[in-house]
Recover the amino acids of this structure.
């Protein structure tokens, strides 16, 4: 029982039930397969962002550039596709850019020693700036074809299965296994929990932190590739605000801003909760201009729930350790 | 992870660590000068000395944090020159510091194997952790030191201070440590936990490990340490065989000053306490509780009185101080200040009402680093250095700080010096100055002399007594029962958040037998071996 | 005499390098693009709102926190001011409401952070979205332009003895903030809190209240900035203010306000803000595309932080040496019983 309560997953599950409960009371259309597939289809690429964010959070950092990098990679996909480059090559290029930016973030935070949110905030400005220059202020169009439709999830590859869905599932398994079963996973938690002790154990902390940012950069790139297909155009302001969703999803899923905590499954469920909430708001007829306001509110709620669960856990532990001593 | 050896250290045991003529200077100032020390196999070797005497520098060199300017040291005959801590550990010297060097989020097993995890090799790929194998390797050793099989998979953030220290020891042993350096290992541990730790140290001794034990608790040495080397001003003065020396001799060597057995200056001030009923009651607690941390605390404090608070870690002593100070809420009960009920929402209100606190953790909660000494002193009562009530007068501030600097003998070239540059003792005195500047009627002092050398320790005690003699009242929290005996009129023993014992008239008699009686009574009550009792 | 001390203290905290650098690049640009001098009045006028934001950012950062919402709050304040003005409310009231909007969000931020203990940049990230969202909704619901008020426009376009009115207004506000930080009890508490919040809490400072105060100050300054911005622009669009917080924080850091907290001043923020603004103007005159400004700010920010850390390292090295010397207790003659 104690182990269950201390698992960060608990917070998400509570929230999931909460939101589901609210939905059942307020909106009838919610519990239909059509609706589910609808809002889920739009959430896969955010799940990827949330997973990347979770990895960075576990390592004790934060990546505020994840939205801008997603947009940048989407822009790269569009531009290269327009120039006639083959799809596999385009994907490789986009991933490379994502990894590169991640590497830069990592270097700024480790070697240069900048605080993580400043470094990634700056990188976000850079990426947005570059995209702006490319798009020259107008959206990139004309690159869409059947393949990109599938990549974006607008067309399924087999029955109800889409590329974004598969990508999210595969990455989830890969990252989840990495965190639990590999040496690197243990080291990620270690760095986030006590950086100094980790360094003293001879582990290359710099390498681990940089790799965490590279992972998030690659996740952003994957997300951008999907986005290019899904959005059908790449406007200059694409990606604005997605890092907020990614952070909210990760926090709802049990990650901590302090580092050393987090779960991939949590990130996925966290995004599901977010997508559900936004879906409910839309179904209730609230105009989309209000969305930003709600996202802000949800972020606050996510943190509060997270904190509540942690304090609950501490209280329970305190009681049991008091009995021991 | 070798089999345990039964070993009794005698002078014929081989020397495994031979430190020869090590010197180290920092920017022209000698921190160590021709230090010499030998540690034998299975020996507990105490390292003593005041602040800045060179102990930390030597440990730094042995653990590879820094390199000596000259001299060398040999482990089992071969010269070592570790370039970093990892080198030192691999060579067989592990240091266990006061600060935790484990990772809270990781399990015991993950902590022990951090940086050298065992990997399953499958189809030529080395990716997955081999948790089973790692467990099998350490399970026996862990159990010898009281760690159960289940506890190997629990994140260490769930454990208390003693268990964490033990895990560090087990981890060191898995590195086949020949020399284990323990830097103030009992800090953060309570009397009963200390005794457990001493058992573990004896266990290590019997396994043939050489222990270097850095401590300033001279009373802990007897019966445990075989040899002591005394540092002073960067030199190693003498290595004493502890069976033949007294505490007096040791302190004499450490400081060149005469101290009596209790660690006090020979000329002690007799602590006078007038009849309690003649002095007004300044503070009283009535069944104060805070969730599960404090339960029905009731006591009253009078002017001119010092109440000492004792107990194990987690007993609620610091928590009690925080509740009185308004830093934490109480869930029930009342607090009366000068007869009127008070409910403080923050420390600001407590200070305004006349209570000041010296916190336990000086580094994090005491000094405001980055600010000067003068700024640290004025901070709790900025009105005292203000003009028109809201503007700060730097002139007034400087004068105030200089005044306290002289009265309290704070060692600093100027009051505008950044406070982090001062020694522990001087920092402590600066915080005392800060407290006194707010004109309190009550002083709460949590560990008055932690990390302070013996000379400054006495000065701090005198400051407290001086405050009392002028009509103030104090609550002193200390882990060292000896310290409480020297200062308090009455001692309260806490256990699990409740008062389990009150010892009155502590100062009535200085007879050794009485002191021993009180000490053992406090220990027993803290551990819960007796029911509530009054002496 | 006292004022002289105050002045020198201000400059020393500012970081003389930045003033020097500022003068240097002004000279440089003047040399490269001779019309630079003539544009100074213009671009500084345009810069005034951001300068106020920079000072607000500095106050919060000195207190050990960060406020990411100042940009959007500024935009929203501008929107509210414009809206009330266009709706026919008296000018003075509109200005007050604009400032009050800023103060309100400052209060909201402070409340969320102190009462609920939510991490400061998450909380302000949330209010960034909330205030930004509110402006979007507002801009869609009604017209945010067409206000007829001479007094209002004169705030920015009027002048005394050739110096634009907004200079005086901003100058007075910044001077007030500098005084508050360096000379008042509240200012001292802000520095203490930024240096070590936990120790300040134990030492009798009501950290919650002081932290709340820093956010209210930064919010109010954002409100003032919004009013001046509305006066200059004449019309407010949906995404106004987005991104300003980045420039403001970059300006504060470049000027010498340490992100670690406990170091800096309003003058430092002013210098840094002027520096970045001047840099942007100079680059623009040279012919560099304005889009690069975000990149320039980013670079300036990174360089500023590195520089600040170097200063801290040097400071620590010195103190390490001092402490070694001081740690030896001096032997006192005859000091034993």
């Amino acid at each position: 029982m104690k182990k269950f309560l201390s698992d960060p997953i608990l917070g998400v599950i509570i929230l999931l039930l909460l939101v589901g409960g609210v939905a059942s009371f307020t909106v009838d259309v919610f519990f239909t397969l059509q609706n589910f597939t609808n809002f889920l289809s739009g959430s896969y690429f955010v799940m990827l962002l949330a997973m990347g964010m979770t990895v960075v959070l576990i390592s004790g950092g934060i990546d505020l550039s994840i939205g801008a990098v997603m947009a940048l990679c989407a822009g790269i996909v569009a531009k290269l596709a327009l120039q006639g480059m083959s799809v596999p090559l385009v994907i490789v290029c986009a991933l490379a850019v994502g990894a590169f930016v991640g590497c830069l973030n990592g270097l700024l935070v480790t070697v240069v020693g900048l605080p993580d949110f400043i470094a990634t905030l700056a990188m976000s400005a850079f990426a947005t700036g570059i995209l702006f220059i490319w798009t020259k202020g107008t959206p990139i169009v004309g690159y869409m074809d059947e393949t990109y439709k599938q990549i974006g999830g607008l067309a399924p590859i087999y029955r109800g299965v889409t590329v974004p869905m598969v990508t999210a599932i595969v990455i989830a398994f890969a990252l989840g296994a990495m965190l639990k079963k590999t040496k690197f996973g243990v080291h990620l938690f270690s760095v986030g929990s006590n950086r100094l002790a980790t360094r003293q154990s001879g582990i290359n902390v710099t390498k681990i932190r940089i790799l965490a940012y590279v992972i998030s950069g690659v996740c952003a790139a994957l997300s951008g590739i999907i986005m290019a297909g899904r959005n059908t155009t790449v406007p200059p302001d694409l990606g604005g605000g997605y890092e907020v969703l990614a952070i909210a999803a990760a926090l709802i899923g049990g990650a901590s801003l302090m580092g050393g905590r987090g779960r991939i499954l949590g990130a996925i469920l966290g995004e599901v909760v977010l997508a559900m909430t936004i879906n409910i708001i839309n179904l209730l007829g609230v105009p989309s201009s209000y969305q930003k306001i709600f996202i802000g509110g949800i972020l606050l709620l996510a943190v509060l729930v997270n904190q509540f669960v942690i304090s609950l856990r501490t209280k329970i532990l305190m009681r049991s350790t008091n009995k021991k001593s | 992870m070798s089999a345990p050896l039964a070993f009794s250290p005698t002078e014929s045991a081989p020397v495994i660590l031979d430190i020869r003529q090590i010197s180290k200077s920092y920017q022209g100032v000698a921190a160590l000068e021709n230090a010499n020390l030998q540690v034998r196999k299975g020996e507990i070797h105490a390292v003593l000395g005041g602040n800045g005497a060179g102990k930390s520098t030597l440990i730094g060199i042995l653990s590879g944090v820094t390199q000596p300017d000259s001299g060398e040291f040999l482990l089992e005959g071969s010269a070592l020159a570790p370039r970093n801590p990892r080198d030192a550990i691999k060579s067989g010297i592990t240091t266990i510091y006061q600060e935790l060097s484990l990772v809270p989020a990781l399990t015991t097993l993950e902590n022990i194997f951090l940086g050298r995890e065992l990997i399953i090799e499958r189809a030529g790929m080395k990716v997955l952790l081999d948790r089973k194998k790692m467990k099998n390797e350490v399970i026996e050793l862990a159990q010898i030191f009281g760690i159960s099989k289940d506890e190997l998979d629990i994140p260490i953030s769930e454990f208390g201070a003693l268990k964490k220290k033990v895990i560090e020891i087990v981890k060191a042993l898995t590195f086949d440590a020949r020399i284990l350096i323990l830097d103030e290992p009992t800090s953060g541990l309570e009397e009963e936990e200390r005794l457990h730790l001493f058992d573990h140290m004896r266990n290590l001794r019997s396994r043939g490990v050489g222990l270097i034990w850095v401590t300033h608790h001279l009373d802990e040495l007897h019966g445990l340490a075989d040899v002591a080397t005394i540092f002073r001003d960067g030199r190693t003065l003498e290595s004493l065989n502890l069976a033949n020396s007294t505490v007096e001799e040791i302190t004499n060597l450490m400081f060149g000053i005469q101290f009596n057995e209790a660690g006090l200056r020979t000329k002690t001030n007799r602590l006078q306490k007038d009849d309690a009923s003649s002095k007004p009651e300044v503070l009283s607690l009535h069944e104060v509780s805070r969730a599960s941390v404090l339960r029905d605390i009731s006591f009253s404090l009078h002017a001119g009185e010092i109440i000492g608070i004792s107990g194990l870690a987690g007993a609620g002593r610091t928590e009690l101080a925080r509740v009185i100070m308004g830093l934490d809420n109480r869930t029930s009960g009342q607090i009366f200040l000068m007869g009127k009920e008070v409910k403080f929402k923050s420390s600001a209100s407590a200070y305004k009402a006349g209570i000041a606190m010296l916190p336990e953790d000086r580094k994090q909660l005491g000094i405001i680093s980055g600010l000067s000494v003068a700024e640290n002193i004025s901070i709790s009562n900025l009105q005292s250095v203000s003009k028109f009530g809201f503007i700060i007068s730097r002139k007034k501030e400087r004068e105030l700080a200089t005044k306290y600097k002289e009265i309290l003998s704070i060692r600093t070239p100027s009051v505008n010096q950044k406070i982090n540059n001062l020694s522990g003792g001087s920092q402590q005195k600066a915080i005392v100055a800060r407290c006194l500047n707010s004109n309190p009627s009550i002083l709460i002092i949590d560990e008055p002399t932690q990390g302070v050398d013996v000379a400054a320790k006495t000065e701090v005690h005198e400051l407290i007594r001086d405050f009392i003699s002028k009509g103030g009242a104090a609550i002193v929290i200390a882990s060292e029962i000896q310290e409480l005996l020297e200062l308090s009129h009455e001692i309260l023993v806490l256990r699990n958040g409740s008062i389990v014992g009150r010892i009155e008239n502590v100062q009535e008699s200085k007879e050794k037998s009485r002191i021993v009686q009180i000490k053992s009574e406090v220990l027993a009550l803290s551990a819960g071996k007796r029911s509530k009792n009054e002496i | 005499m006292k004022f002289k001390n105050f002045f020198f203290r201000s400059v020393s905290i500012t970081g003389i390098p930045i003033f020097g650098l500022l003068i240097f690049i002004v000279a440089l640009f003047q040399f490269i693009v001779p019309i630079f001098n003539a544009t100074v009045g213009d671009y500084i006028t345009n810069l005034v709102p951001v300068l106020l934001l920079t000072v607000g950012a500095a106050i919060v950062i000195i207190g050990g926190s960060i406020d990411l919402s100042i940009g959007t709050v500024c935009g929203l304040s501008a929107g509210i001011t414009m809206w009330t003005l266009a709706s026919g409310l008296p000018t003075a009231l509109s200005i007050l409401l604009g400032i009050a909007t800023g103060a309100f969000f400052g209060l909201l931020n402070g409340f969320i952070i102190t009462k609920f203990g939510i991490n400061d940049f998450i909380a302000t990230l949330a209010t960034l979205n909330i205030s930004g969202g509110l402006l979007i909704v507002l801009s869609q619901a009604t017209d945010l332009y067409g206000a007829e008020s001479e007094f209002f426009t004169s705030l920015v376009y009027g002048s005394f003895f050739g110096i634009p009115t907004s200079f005086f207004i901003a100058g007075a506000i910044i001077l007030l903030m500098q005084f508050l930080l360096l000379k008042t009890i509240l200012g001292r508490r802000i520095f203490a809190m930024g240096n070590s919040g936990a120790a300040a809490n134990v030492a009798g400072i009501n950290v919650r209240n002081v932290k709340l105060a820093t956010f209210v100050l930064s919010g109010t300054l954002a409100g003032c900035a919004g009013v001046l911005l509305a006066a200059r622009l004449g019309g407010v669009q949906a995404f106004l203010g987005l991104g300003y917080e980045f420039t403001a924080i970059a300006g504060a850091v470049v000027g010498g306000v340490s992100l670690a907290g406990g170091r800096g001043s309003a003058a430092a923020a002013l210098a840094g803000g002027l520096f970045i603004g001047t840099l942007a103007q100079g680059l623009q005159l040279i012919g560099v595309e304005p889009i690069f400004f975000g990149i320039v700010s980013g670079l300036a920010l990174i360089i500023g932080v590195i520089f600040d850390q170097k200063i801290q390292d040097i400071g620590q090295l010195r103190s390490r040496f001092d402490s070694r010397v001081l740690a030896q207790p001096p032997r006192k003659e005859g000091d034993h019983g």
